[in-house]
User: Which sequence fits this backbone?
C-alpha cells in the first residue's frame, strides 16, 4: 500500500486525529493507516499536540476570573446600551457651548430629557462637554487649584452631597491640576483635571445618579477625544482625554479602582 | 434577543483561554476579552438566540484579529510559557510549544485552538471564522504539520492527559 490514496484525505486524517469521524469511517482510516507507519506517526504526533496545547492553555481557564471582566457581565443591564446618535450629540454640544438659541431638549431641561434617561450617556456627554470647554483654557483651566486639594474635594463633595475623591493618577504620569463645579442641567457636576508631562489633559467627571442601575465600562469617542464612562449607583463617572483608547482605558481603570 | 448573563459569565474562562492562546500575553488577552464582552452586550439585539458560545467567540476572533493587524505583531514567544504550569508539564516543552504556537500564522492558530482546545466542531469553527469548512480543515492540517516540525527535536516528555 504505497502512494497517495484518494480514499483518505488530509481532512480525514485531521478528523481522525481529533476522533471526530463517524465510527465506520474511523475504522476505515484506522485500516488505511495500518499499512502506513509514517502517516500513523504523523497522526499520533497530532494527538500529542492536542494534549500538549490543552495542558499549556487549560490553566488559564482555571484562573479566577478577573473582577473587572466579571463586572462587565454581571453589572450590565438587560437592556443593551445605546450609543447616542450624532444629531443628538451635536444638539447637546451646541446647547452646552451656548449656540443653542431657545431650543429646549426634553420637558425638564437638558440633559435629562425624560424619566428613562441613561445616566451613562448623561455623564459621558456632560463630561466630554466640560472637558472640551475647560481643558482648552490656558490660564483658568480650574476653579480651585491642586494646592488646595482638600478644600476642593470637601467643597465638591458638599455640593454633590456625596463623598468624592480626587483620584491620584501619578502612577499614570498625570498630576492633578485642580477642579471645578460644572452645571449639568440644573444639577451640580464635579470635574477634576489632570495633566501629563507632554501637556495632555484628562478630566474625571462625576454626577449624582441616585437609583440608576450600575453599568459596565463603556467607551465612546468624538474625533480626537475618547471617553470611558460607567454608572456606579449613587454616582456616575466619565473619564475623558485624548483618543488613545489603550492609554485612556489604563487611566480610566485606575480611576475606577480608586473611586469604586 | 437578550443574552443570558449567567451563560455569558460562564464563557469567560474559555474566552480568556482562547485569547491567551492567540495573543500570547495576559494583559493583551484580557483586553481582548473585555472588548469582546462589551461588544457582545452592545450588540445583544443582533443575537438570534442559537449558539451563544459560537456567537461570542466570533466577536472575540474579530476583536483579536483587528488588534493583531493594528499592532502588526505576533504573540511574544515564551509569554505563554509563563502560565502557571501544571505540576507534570515540562517547562522546556512548554516554552518550545508556546514558541511554536506563536510562530504559526494567525489564520492557522485560530482554527487549531478553536477545535483542539475549545472543542468547537469543524462546522462551528467555519462559522466563527467565516470561512469554508474545507479551508478550516486544510488550515488545521497545515498548523499541525508546522507545529510537529517545530517541536521535532524539542525535549520530549511522556504525554499525560491533563483533562
Assistant:
Amino acid at each position: 500500500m504505497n502512494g497517495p490514496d484518494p480514499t483518505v484525505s488530509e481532512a480525514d486524517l485531521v478528523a481522525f486525529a481529533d476522533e471526530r469521524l463517524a465510527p465506520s469511517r474511523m475504522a476505515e482510516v484506522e485500516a488505511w493507516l495500518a499499512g502506513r507507519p509514517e502517516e500513523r506517526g504523523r497522526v499520533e504526533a497530532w494527538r500529542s499536540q492536542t494534549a500538549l496545547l490543552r495542558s499549556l492553555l487549560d490553566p488559564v481557564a482555571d484562573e479566577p476570573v478577573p473582577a473587572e471582566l466579571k463586572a462587565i457581565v454581571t453589572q450590565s443591564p438587560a437592556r443593551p446600551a445605546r450609543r447616542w446618535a450624532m444629531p443628538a450629540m451635536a444638539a447637546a454640544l451646541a446647547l452646552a457651548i451656548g449656540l443653542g438659541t431657545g431650543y429646549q431638549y426634553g420637558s425638564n431641561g437638558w440633559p435629562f430629557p425624560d424619566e428613562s434617561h441613561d445616566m451613562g450617556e448623561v455623564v459621558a456627554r456632560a463630561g466630554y462637554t466640560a472637558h472640551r470647554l475647560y481643558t482648552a483654557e490656558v490660564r483658568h483651566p480650574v476653579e480651585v487649584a491642586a494646592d488646595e486639594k482638600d478644600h476642593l474635594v470637601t467643597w465638591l463633595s458638599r455640593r454633590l452631597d456625596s463623598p468624592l475623591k480626587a483620584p491620584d493618577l501619578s502612577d499614570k504620569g498625570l498630576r492633578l491640576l485642580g477642579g471645578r463645579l460644572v452645571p449639568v442641567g440644573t444639577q451640580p457636576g464635579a470635574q477634576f483635571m489632570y495633566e501629563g508631562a507632554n501637556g495632555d489633559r484628562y478630566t474625571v467627571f462625576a454626577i449624582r445618579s441616585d437609583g440608576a442601575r450600575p453599568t459596565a465600562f463603556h467607551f465612546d469617542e468624538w474625533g480626537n477625544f475618547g471617553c470611558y464612562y460607567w454608572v456606579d449607583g449613587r454616582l456616575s463617572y466619565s473619564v475623558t482625554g485624548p483618543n488613545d483608547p489603550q492609554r485612556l482605558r489604563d487611566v480610566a481603570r485606575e480611576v475606577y479602582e480608586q473611586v469604586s | 434577543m437578550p443574552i443570558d448573563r449567567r451563560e455569558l459569565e460562564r464563557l469567560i474562562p474559555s474566552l480568556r483561554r482562547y485569547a491567551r492562546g492567540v495573543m500570547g500575553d495576559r494583559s493583551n488577552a484580557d483586553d481582548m476579552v473585555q472588548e469582546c464582552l462589551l461588544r457582545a452586550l452592545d450588540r445583544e439585539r443582533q443575537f438570534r438566540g442559537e449558539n451563544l458560545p459560537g456567537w461570542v467567540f466570533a466577536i472575540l476572533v474579530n476583536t483579536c484579529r483587528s488588534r493583531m493587524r493594528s499592532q502588526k505583531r505576533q504573540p511574544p514567544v515564551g509569554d505563554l510559557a509563563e502560565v502557571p504550569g501544571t505540576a507534570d508539564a515540562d517547562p522546556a516543552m512548554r516554552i518550545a510549544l508556546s514558541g511554536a504556537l506563536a510562530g504559526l500564522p494567525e489564520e492557522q492558530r485560530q482554527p487549531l485552538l478553536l477545535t483542539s482546545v475549545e472543542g468547537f466542531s469543524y462546522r462551528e469553527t467555519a462559522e466563527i471564522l467565516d470561512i469554508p469548512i474545507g479551508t478550516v480543515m486544510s488550515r488545521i492540517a497545515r498548523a499541525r504539520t508546522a507545529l510537529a516540525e517545530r517541536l521535532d527535536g524539542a525535549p520530549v516528555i511522556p504525554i499525560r492527559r491533563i483533562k
Q: What stands out?
A: DSSP finds seven helices and no strands in chain B.
